[in-house]
Design a protein that fits this description.
The complex is a heterodimer of chains A (290) and B (406). In chain A, 75% of the residues lie in helices and 3% in strands. Chain A contains 11 helices and 2 strands, in the order H-H-H-H-E-E-H-H-H-H-H-H-H. In chain A, strands 1-2 form a two-stranded antiparallel sheet. Chain B is α/β, with parallel strands linked by helices. Chain B has 2 domains: 34-160 and 298-363, Rossmann fold; 179-293 and 376-389, Rossmann fold. Chain B is 47% helix and 18% strand. The chains are: A mainly alpha (290), B alpha/beta (406).
């Protein structure tokens, strides 16, 4: 029973981490507190639903189309909608407030488009909902896939950010945008890339969770909230932090649901969140950005 | 002085009443259109349910009225005008919108919002202005008490006890026949619907001698059901009951399939009767039970389903939808019989009249359809969500055990 709870918790945590990784890039590096984050995730879910049920594309091929498309769209959103705010903002705090307001508006635009196209009804499709035996525990293949993606993307980005020149430049922007300019880093271009990359990531996450979660045009905010908790818990802008924080949340929820009461999962989540904020206000791996 | 004042007041009152009644009759004579208004959750957490069960019925009814040339009032067809607001799944917003519909838009008829919570929230406003409130997405054990307080309110889905009694009867029979053991595993969503139904089930199952080996509630929006499914699997119960919301209903069945958890009786909540359910699970829906259910041989509902599919390209919800359409048919007939927009008379007609509906002739008892009008418990049988309880003429026998997942 322990192995079962452990594996289920890791799978759930992997999904949380996956959902949060895009936000940690957008918030940590590009300094955009993107409230429409969950809506982009749901939009990707709808896109792949449409590709799968109408056009007949396998959701994995759908992801290969949706994620790059989201990357480009997010880059355009940054250049057109957010760059004026970046230019205007005198301080980082001012940018944060402005970006919250602007993306709050964007949230309703994206949600409205989805409502017009798909209505408010629930959507769901079945893909890879096949049992896989892992150490004697049965887990759905689509959830394992989401976990694998979270691990691979998390580690790849972590290495990319810490070991490559471009990654180092991105981290420099996250740490200190003003000084980064002094060493010839094009801060705006770097932030645009980080924001677009975050958009591509969240779209990939949206495709993966749509394989096992029922969604409609209105549930984006659920994912924004979850991602925000994971990002703040893990340390803003830190990939490894997002992965670890996601796993902590997933394991906590599963352990509480298995041994205490499923009704207390939310309470447990927020208690852990509170404790970590009290002990390490900068987040688990936060060091002013990494 | 006092006397003169009194006379003056009386004269004034008579005069006022006169102008008022004059205005009223003028309005009736000059009425060139009937305004129908409603506030409903087009966005927010309620939108999923409202978009399946309620809005399609409204649209279907408006289309039929428009095709006929409007509502029949005093022997001639009066065109309708529809005013719709989004209550954003928020009860204050719903109350404001309904008040606005009444006082500013001056609608002639109001249609209810979606869900138990919002219908309870707008109830006082409907009542204050005397508008009939024909709810068909609200289940509450307070319904009989509410009808006394708000005689203008009608509760087509009835009370949670009625569903639980029907379910417990079914289970008791199967247990007596030796088909299932006396142990039940139950989970419920920690929200209005789940709390009400699980409370009633705890009482009902306990009285019938069943043992609850598992009785857990989970928060709205729970994204992983596997710990609960594993516990139910370990509990040794032959009967699994989940009072769940649509996303959970899908997740529970998904997880049960992955874990090969096929209890002899599998009952899941809202969403089991939605068109998305058979789409998602195909032949695996066989044997799964839930609230609602249709009579497969009823020509009226079959015709209604055909119209619904023609307009919306999807099936109705097999619980609330047919009652929604019935309530609109009854409202239309009541208005026609009264012959004018006299809401008190329309309420009275709804309370006492007998109406021709897709479910046959219906006469309400205490503002609710009497037992036997429609199925409380249904089961997927041969790809059709078939009514199996309460005992009555049109109910099919229950299929047991639920087949294994394929």
């Amino acid at each position: 029973m322990f192995v079962e709870a452990l594996l289920t918790g890791i799978t759930l945590g992997g999904m949380y981490a996956l959902v949060a990784m895009g936000l940690t890039l957008q918030y940590g590096v590009a300094r955009i507190m993107n409230l429409s984050y969950g809506e982009i995730l749901v939009a990707a879910a709808f896109a792949v639903f449409w590709l799968f049920t109408v056009a007949g594309f396998n959701p994995l091929i759908g992801m290969a189309m949706v994620a790059p498309a989201a990357l480009v769209i997010n880059w355009v959103i940054y250049r057109i909608l957010l760059l004026p705010l970046v230019r205007r903002a005198k301080t980082r705090d001012a940018l944060e407030v402005d970006s919250i307001l602007a993306t709050f508006g964007l949230l309703f635009v994206v949600q409205g488009v989805m409502l017009v196209l798909f209505g408010g009804a629930y959507y769901s499709y079945s893909f890879l909902a096949i049992p896989v035996d892992v150490f004697g525990v049965t887990i759905a293949a689509n959830r394992l896939l989401a976990l694998a993606f979270a691990a691979v993307i998390g580690l790849a980005l972590y290495i990319g950010l810490t070991r490559t020149r471009a990654g180092t430049a991105l981290r420099a922007v996250a740490v200190d945008p003003v000084s980064a300019q002094l060493v010839a880093i094009d801060v705006r271009a770097a932030a645009a890339i980080a924001f677009a990359l975050g958009g591509g990531l969240v779209a990939a996450g949206g495709v993966l969770v749509s394989m096992f979660l029922t969604f409609n045009a209105n549930i984006g905010v659920v994912f924004t909230m979850k991602a925000l908790i994971v990002v703040i818990m893990g340390g803003v802008g830190n990939m490894l932090g997002a992965l670890v924080a996601g796993l902590i949340l997933g394991l906590t929820e599963t352990f509480v649901a298995t041994w205490i009461d499923p009704g207390l999962t939310l309470a447990a989540t927020y208690s852990i969140f509170l404790i970590i904020l009290l002990v390490r206000p900068q987040g688990l791996f936060g060091r002013g950005g990494r | 002085m006092t006397r003169r004042f009194r006379i003056l007041a009386a004269a004034l009152a008579v005069g006022l009443a006169g102008t008022l009644s004059l205005a009223a009759s003028n309005q009736a004579l000059a009425q060139d259109k009937i305004k129908i208004g409603y506030a409903i959750s087009k966005t927010g957490p309620n939108a999923g349910g409202a978009n399946i069960t309620q809005i399609p019925n409204y649209q279907l009814w408006f289309k039929e009225l428009n095709d006929k040339g409007g509502l029949m009032i005093g022997g001639k067809r009066v065109p309708i005008e529809v005013i719709e607001y989004d209550d954003r799944s928020n009860s204050e917003e719903a109350v404001r919108a309904v008040e606005r519909l009444i006082t500013q838009d001056k609608v002639d008829l109001l249609l209810p919002p979606w869900g138990t919570g919002l219908n309870l929230a707008v109830g006082p406003v409907f009542n204050k202005y005397g508008y009939p409130q024909l709810t068909f997405s609200a289940v509450t054990d307070q319904a009989p008490a509410l009808v006394k307080r708000w005689p203008n309110s009608f509760w087509f889905l009835g009370t949670s006890v009625q569903y639980i009694n029907a379910l417990v009867d079914l289970l008791s029979k199967q247990q007596k026949a030796g088909k299932i053991n006396g142990t039940v595993a139950m989970i419920s969503v920690a929200d209005g619907f789940g709390i009400d139904l699980s409370k009633a089930a705890r009482d009902g199952l306990g009285k019938a001698g069943f043992k609850l080996a598992m009785d857990k509630s989970y928060p709205v929006g729970t994204q992983d059901m596997s710990p609960m499914i594993s516990e139910a699997q370990r509990s040794g119960a032959d009967t699994f009951i989940a009072f769940s919301y649509p996303p959970d209903t899908v997740a529970i069945n998904d997880q049960a399939k992955v874990a090969s958890f096929a209890p002899k009786v599998m009952f899941t909540g809202v969403g089991t009767g939605f068109p998305l359910f058979p789409q998602r699970f195909g032949a695996n829906v066989e044997g799964i039970m839930s609230l609602g259910g249709w009579n497969p041989n009823n020509a009226g509902t079959a015709e209604y389903r055909k119209k619904h599919v023609a307009m919306h390209s999807r099936d109705p919800d097999y619980w609330g939808s047919q009652l929604g359409y019935v309530s609109l048919q009854m409202l239309e007939q009541a208005v026609e019989r009264v012959g004018k927009i006299d809401r008190a008379a329309i309420v009275k007609e709804l309370q006492t009249g007998t109406f021709d509906t897709v479910l046959g002739k219906i006469k309400l008892v205490d503002n609710m359809p009497p037992k036997g009008t429609y199925a409380y418990i249904g089961q997927w049988q041969n790809g059709f969500f078939t009514g199996i309880a309460p005992d009555g003429a049109n109910m099919k026998p229950m299929v047991i055990p639920k087949p294994a997942w394929k």
